[in-house]
Design goal:
Strand content: 5-15%
Radius of gyration: 35 Å
Helix content: 55-70%
Number of strands: 10
Number of helices: 21
Number of domains: 2
Strand order of the largest sheet: 6-7-8-3-9-10
CATH architecture of the largest domain: Up-down Bundle
Structural class: alpha/beta
CATH class of the largest domain: Mainly Alpha
Shape: elongated
Length: 641
């Protein structure tokens, strides 16, 4: 949507408002590792060259690292034991060279893979955001903003362990273990067999432990997202929180979420600590067995002292991957849990994945027709029933009715936020479910009661609807919407930063900015969702001409609770319980003495200057004594611009 892309139209018939704390913990469900394998392949495949090069570097590094323990046998048995002093220089040079090779390869490995991993994280965040931005409104209704932020920013962090040094270091550890195993078998097959049996038994226990930890890590991501979401809401609504002196309550809600997160972390740390404890016991058991049996073999003459020392050194390389599994394996498990959550988002169907949407309408005239439209948010719970009407180009259609009557749902269907459950919505005679949304929404403009502005400058917020607009076009839109009257009073003019959600501006100034944004977009279909109901009379008068200019020649839809604002609309649709109960002009509906007359009389002729010419309606005021307002008679026609 060109006018306001980031703000959706509220849906009272859809929303079940709940102000609550962080959800109570649920039993962590088992992670579906197979589901994320395609995503892992997608991540790894384009970087297979870097990974293979990393494996080569790690292989060189690990082989070089084996030179030092291998030299122990020659040092003890030949140089010290047999007095072959001539071997000392070459052995020293070999160890020194191997150490230098190991240092250079380790540095290169970290530089190449770590940077590649960070690039991948940035790419993944862009990919997830691009996908989330194309998801239907229903997805946003079901997920908090903070949850989505967490999924975009936090869940992808773990991929660095798949493409970065984590996975390669793990593979390097396995390679080193196999090389060490080969050397150990040459020195003492019996000792190697005993040590290998203990290590394999421990590996089976580790596999089961990681199967237990993976759902815990996945649950941690969910809790983090929920806590972040609640925190985002609390900070965004800080004025409401302070207005009701609810700081302590919000602190309690946040503390509850933090406690859940702490419990999860403690649970995972307990598991990791148990694995570390087991690994330490493993090392001690293997070391004790090797020491006992090795000493007996040395005394029996079956093993030299240098051979025993070399065996002990290589045994450390065989056991080391077990400790790496505890550390790096935990990181990889956490990464896979995050990737599964990312996979869930990326598999959500976007709006433009509908194979029916193949029509690019080009410039539209703006005729909107509902043909027996029915709609359900949830199966079996309809909220619209056989709604039919036509809005011709250049006309104003007003939707009135009590909350939950279906007004916002109808507007949502016009905006193509949802598809009808039954019947069809046509734009210029084309079924809206077949129209490409990128072509359609660029011609749709929305001015909402709750204006959303970004934390940028006045100029940037207005140009949001048309990034390629010239400076002259922006200034013209500002002139029409009367933005120039207050922007010029700021020290930095149109380059004034207005703060988050335009907090540095008044309500009327924010509304005028929103109107300027819509004017710049030049939409063919325009929607007002109670655009001025929260403004004072002075602010309404200031934006009156801008609204009139914006509506001229466009198909306009108005959701109105203050009925006096739409008395000269071309057609008024009175909605109740998802049906059009009455339709007609103000005069015909008022004369019919039906639901519209009842609603109008209850409001005693509340007046807004929206849709009135300058100077009209000035004498009409709300009555506090239960009598019709003085000045203009209740049913007197008002000229519509």
């Amino acid at each position: 949507m060109r006018a306001i892309r980031s703000t959706s139209i509220g849906s009272p018939e859809r929303t079940h408002a709940r102000i609550r704390g962080i959800d109570r913990p649920e039993k962590p469900r088992k992670t579906n590792f197979r589901a994320v394998l395609p995503l892992v392949r997608e991540l790894v495949h384009p970087r297979r060259g870097i990974l293979l090069f990393g494996l080569l570097l790690i292989a060189i590094s690990r082989v070089a690292g084996l030179v030092l323990p291998a030299s122990t046998k020659y040092l003890v048995d030949d140089i010290i034991g047999k007095r072959h002093v001539e071997m000392l220089g070459p052995l020293f040079a070999a160890v020194l060279g191997a150490t230098a090779v190991q240092a250079v390869t380790s540095f290169s490995l970290t530089q190449i893979l770590s940077k590649s991993a960070q690039k991948l994280i940035a790419e993944m965040r862009r990919k997830v955001l691009a996908h989330v931005g194309r998801l239907p409104i229903a997805y946003y209704d079901a997920n908090k903003t903070g949850v989505l932020v967490s999924r975009i920013m936090n869940d992808v962090e773990g991929v660095r362990n798949l493409v970065g040094t984590g996975l390669v270091e793990f593979a390097g550890g396995i390679l080193t273990a196999f090389l060490a195993l080969f050397m150990l078998l040459r020195i003492s097959p019996m000792l190697t067999g005993i040590a290998l049996g203990v290590i394999l038994t421990f590996s089976l226990l580790l596999q089961k432990a990681f199967g237990t930890l993976r759902p815990i890590f996945r649950e941690r991501g969910k809790i983090t997202a929920e806590v972040t979401g609640r925190l985002t809401e609390s900070l965004s609504g800080v004025r409401v929180v302070k207005g009701y002196h609810a700081e302590a309550r919000e602190e309690g809600v946040f503390a509850q979420g933090v406690q859940r997160l702490l419990d999860n972390v403690i649970k995972s740390l307990t598991g990791v600590s148990l694995m570390s404890l087991s690994a330490t016991l493993l090392l001690g058991i293997v070391g004790a067995i090797v020491m006992y049996l090795g000493a007996k073999q040395i005394l029996a003459g079956a093993l030299t002292l240098g051979g025993f020392m070399t065996f002990t050194a290589f045994l450390a390389f065989l056991v080391a991957p077990v400790f790496q599994i505890v550390g790096i394996g935990t990181q990889l498990t956490e990464a896979l849990a995050g990737l599964e959550r990312t996979h869930e988002v990326l598999t959500e169907k976007t709006e433009d994945q509908d194979p029916r949407r193949t029509v690019s309408p080009g410039p539209i005239q703006g005729e909107v027709r509902f043909d027996n439209v029915g709609f359900e948010y949830d199966p079996g719970k309809p909220v619209l029933f056989d709604v039919s009407f036509t809005a011709s180009p250049g006309t104003v259609t007003a939707l009135v009715g009590s909350s939950g009557s279906g007004k916002s749902t109808t507007i949502g269907l016009i905006s193509a936020f949802h598809n009808p459950t039954s019947g069809k919505v046509f734009v210029d005679g084309v079924d809206l479910t077949t129209v490409r949304l990128d072509s359609y929404r660029t011609q749709l403009g929305v001015v909402l009661q709750d204006t959303f502005l970004f934390d940028g400058t006045i100029r940037e917020n207005i140009a949001f609807s048309k990034p390629g607009a010239t400076g002259e076009q922006i200034l013209e839109a500002c002139r029409i919407a009367r933005v120039d009257e207050f922007a010029g009073k700021f020290e930095n003019g149109y380059d004034t930063v207005i703060g988050e959600r335009g907090v540095k501006l008044s309500g009327g100034q924010r509304q005028r900015l929103s109107i300027a944004r819509a004017i710049l977009a030049d939409p063919r279909i325009l929607i007002f969702d109670e655009a001025t109901s929260s403004l004072d009379s002075e602010s309404e008068q200031m934006i009156q001409s801008g609204l009139s200019h914006l509506m001229r020649g466009r198909t306009t839809f108005v959701i109105a609770h203050r009925l006096s604002t739409i008395r000269r609309a071309h057609q008024i649709l009175v909605m109740e319980d998802g049906r059009i109960l009455e339709r007609g002009t103000h005069e015909s509906l008022y004369a019919a003495q039906g639901r519209y007359r009842d609603l109008y009389d209850r409001q005693h002729g509340l007046v807004s200057n929206l849709f009135l010419a300058p100077g009209e309606g000035d004498s009409v005021a709300e009555s506090d004594d239960g009598q019709p307002p003085r000045g203009r008679p209740l049913g007197e026609p008002v000229r519509f611009l």
